[in-house]
Design brief:
The complex is a heterodimer of chains A (575) and B (164). Chain A is α+β, with helices and mostly antiparallel strands and 575 residues long. Chain A has a domain of 356 residues: Beta-lactamase, CATH 3.40.710.10. Chain A is built from 18 helices and 14 strands. With 164 residues, chain B is mainly alpha-helical. Chain B contains 4 helices and 2 strands; from the N terminus they run H-H-E-E-H-H. In chain B, strands 1-2 form a two-stranded antiparallel ribbon. The termini of chain B are far apart. Classes of the chains: A alpha+beta (575), B mainly alpha (164).
Chain lengths: 575, 164
């Protein structure tokens, strides 16, 4: 079918033309509109990126979750971690119920808040005030049940120490705003709060099992001897790692912000004491290393000696000529000071300086104490420092020094960081090259160190340290009983002593050093009212070794013969 | 011709617009899922942290010791219970160790006949686990009836013998 060609002529033709033109104009408008839509659609679909708001929320959440890195022990057991805990605050402007009514409810939910206290908080003039931090889930539920918009719960991070008091002196603690006050928390604060490293944990050299054993024995003996305090340390003599460090009384870092009084200070790192006979180890090592005496040489210890007006006696007098092993084993003050006089002030000072006794230790804690040294080094100071009086150092100074005496003569600075962290996942918070310094300096010759090992062993076999004997283990050790100076007047109090025992095992191949001390132990019947290191601290260290040895897989030995034994004039029979 | 081309072009524009839009929407959905998942990961990680802290709290050495004393008849190992190698377990003097080629397991070879005297000495040195009193009591209670039964049967037997 052919389309009909209709044509209108005349005046009507003009009207149709106008209508058509108008139609074209409208259609063009519509076309343009649609074109705009198409272009916009394409541009929206193809070119425009998403808004990135939620990325920011996610990253904000992450940083909130990980505001502070974890601290773990050498085996990866968590010592400190951050958990989200809800906190309750009041926004007075939004309160719908009266403060009096609310205060009553809040006081019933939180036993620690009285009605008056909560009313005071609720009627604050400020726009936002914290009511209570770290709520339990049940408390949160109760608060939500009240349903007042003016009570706001928000998540905050709280530092949690799962082991409580156990490692308190090493870790330190943080306050409500996660600001550290002491311990490694303070020392490594910059690394712990570094957002880039928050996934990695700080690996300490502490072994929580040894820490527990040390802590338990210290607590038991502190109670047994009614001591004011107790402190102890277990050190790896081969590399200076601190495996356990405890000081009693301690504090709970979950509740309190650091030590509250002087009693709670870290006695191992911050307490300076005249540690007594432990220093004879240094004097004798110095004499042997400087070739002042030979192992079979000896001194006359029959009579007390007068040095610059003071009379110096032996605590365990033999009143005869003693050779070097006997001086050490029977802890003869007279013999040691005569030896020191032969060494001379200069060499003795140089030796102490080499052992780091004149400066603070390098351990990773703030607030370490510097040793108290004699103001001038005369004959008296030379004599008293020889047996550990007149010079006050921290127990860690003594421990590091004795470790160097037995490990072949190298002084490893004590550290709280595990040196090899390769076995623990995500443990690169502090890389090992930051920790390992140069090779430890040689302070005595390996030969002298060998002799010192044997001498320390003889002390436990025959001498003042007999009570530390453990069947199957070869132990070396030295007792220390130091009288304390009066707090507010000159002179020394004979009744108040620091009893200590420093021991190394297995002594044929030294691995662990155990130091323990009791502050002012009181005599008890069992020890015939004796408070010397050999009666109080030595059995404690023996117990620690008996428990730690099998734990760390130290193999018992059947060896019964010792070097230099023939030099000893022993009364009685050995078993 | 030009009409067909125009129609084709319009169609292409429409199709591509729709597909681009769909692609965009799919990406958006995926990102939404991803966001949900990362939120979930955060939540889970938080839960793991809580669990780890709880694990550390529950495995405190002090608590484990307490629980072990209450529930296990075990004591801390003593030095006498540790042996360096198999040779350390015997009191015999002439013990020869050989290396088995298969697993390199060290095997003890007895060089002399077992000596009854020495054997008794070994049995004496075996450490008997110290059992707390409250653990012994049930055991004794359990033992008692059996002893009574035994006595009873013995008595019966004697009676029977007399009877015969």
């Amino acid at each position: 079918m052919k389309p009909i060609d209709l044509r209108v002529e005349g005046t009507r033709q003009g009207a149709i033309e106008v209508a058509r033109n108008r139609l074209i104009f409208v259609m063009a408008l519509f076309a343009m509109g649609f074109l705009t839509l198409v272009v916009k659609l394409i541009s929206v679909g193809v070119f425009q990126a998403h808004s990135s708001t939620y990325y920011q929320t996610v990253s904000a959440n992450t940083s909130l979750l990980m505001a502070r890195a974890d601290i773990v022990d050498r085996n990866g057991v968590i010592l400190a971690t951050n958990l989200k805990t809800p906190s309750l605050a009041v926004v007075p402007g939004k309160l719908k119920t009266s403060p009096e009514e609310l205060a009553e409810k809040i006081a019933s939910i939180f036993p620690s808040l009285s009605y008056d206290q909560s009313l005071e908080i609720l009627s604050t003039k400020r726009s936002h005030k914290w009511i209570k931090r770290t709520l339990t889930p049940r408390q949160v539920f109760e608060i939500k049940k009240i349903g007042d918009p003016g009570l706001v719960t928000s998540d905050a991070e709280k530092r949690i120490y799962p082991h409580g008091r156990l490692v308190s002196h090493v870790l330190g603690s943080v306050d409500d705003d996660n600001k550290p006050s002491s311990g490694v928390e303070a020392f490594f604060n910059d690394q712990l709060i570094d957002p880039l490293k928050s996934e990695n944990s700080l690996v300490l050299s502490i072994d929580i099992r040894m820490q527990h054993i040390l802590n338990q024995e210290l607590a038991a003996y502190k109670e047994k001897f009614y001591a004011l305090g107790a402190a102890g340390i277990i050190l790896d003599v081969t590399n200076g790692e601190v495996l356990a460090l405890s000081s009693l009384p301690d504090f709970d870092p979950n509740d309190t912000d650091g030590p509250q009084n002087l009693d709670e200070m870290n006695k191992v790192l911050q307490g300076v004491y005249e540690l007594g006979s432990g220093f004879k180890t240094f004097t004798i090592a110095s004499a042997l290393d400087n070739k002042v005496v030979d192992i079979s040489d000896g001194y006359d210890a029959t009579k007390p000696v007068k040095v610059a007006g003071f009379t110096i006696r032996d605590d365990h007098p033999k009143a005869r000529w003693l050779n070097v092993p006997e001086i050490f084993v029977y802890s003869s003050n007279i013999g040691t000071l005569k030896m020191a006089q032969d060494i001379g002030v200069e060499r003795q000072k140089a030796f102490f300086e080499k052992l780091g006794l004149f400066k603070k230790t390098d351990i990773e804690v703030y607030g370490k104490s510097a040793p108290l040294l004699p103001k001038q080094w005369g004959p008296t100071e030379l004599a008293t420092t020889a047996y550990g009086h007149g010079i006050a150092v921290t127990p860690l100074h003594l421990a590091s020094g004795v470790a160097a005496m037995v490990n072949g003569g190298r002084l490893n600075p004590a550290t709280l960081l595990r040196k090899d962290t390769s076995h623990i996942e995500s443990a690169t918070l502090i890389s090992s090259n930051e920790v390992t310094s140069n090779v430890a300096p040689q302070v005595i010759s390996p030969d002298t160190s060998e002799i010192m090992r044997n001498l320390l062993h003889l002390v436990v076999e025959f001498g003042t340290g007999k009570n530390a004997k453990v069947d199957g283990y070869l132990i070396g050790g030295k007792t220390g009983t130091a009288i304390k100076p009066y707090k507010n007047k000159r002179g020394y109090n004979d009744k108040a002593v620091i009893s200590s025992f420093i021991s190394v095992f297995p002594i044929d191949k030294p691995k662990y050093l155990v130091f323990a001390m009791l502050d002012e132990p009181q005599g008890i019947k069992e020890t015939f009212n004796l408070i010397s290191g050999g009666m109080t601290a030595a059995p404690m260290v023996g117990n620690i070794i008996r428990r730690v040895g099998p734990l760390v897989g130290i193999v018992p030995t059947k060896q019964k013969e010792f070097d230099y034994e023939d030099l000893m004039l022993v009364s009685g029979t050995r078993k | 011709m030009i009409k067909i081309f125009a129609a084709f072009a319009i169609l292409t524009v429409m199709i591509s617009t729709v597909s681009v839009y769909k692609l965009k929407q799919a990406t958006y959905d995926l990102e939404e899922t991803k966001r949900a998942i990362s939120a979930q990961i955060l939540k889970d990680r938080e839960a793991i942290k809580v669990l780890k802290a709880e694990m550390a709290y529950l495995s405190r050495p002090e608590r484990l010791e307490r629980l072990s004393r209450r529930h296990l008849v075990l004591d801390a190992p003593e030095t006498g219970q540790l042996a360096v190698n198999l040779a350390g377990l015997t009191v015999r003097d002439n013990v020869q160790m050989i290396n088995m080629p298969v697993d390199n397991f060290q095997l003890l070879l007895p060089r002399q006949k077992p000596n009854p005297m020495k054997a008794r000495r070994v049995s004496e040195t075996i450490t008997v686990a110290r059992v707390r009193a409250d653990h012994i009591e049930p055991a004794i209670k359990a033992d008692k009836p059996s002893k009574i039964v035994e006595q009873h049967s013995l008595f019966d037997r004697i009676l029977a013998k007399i009877g015969n």
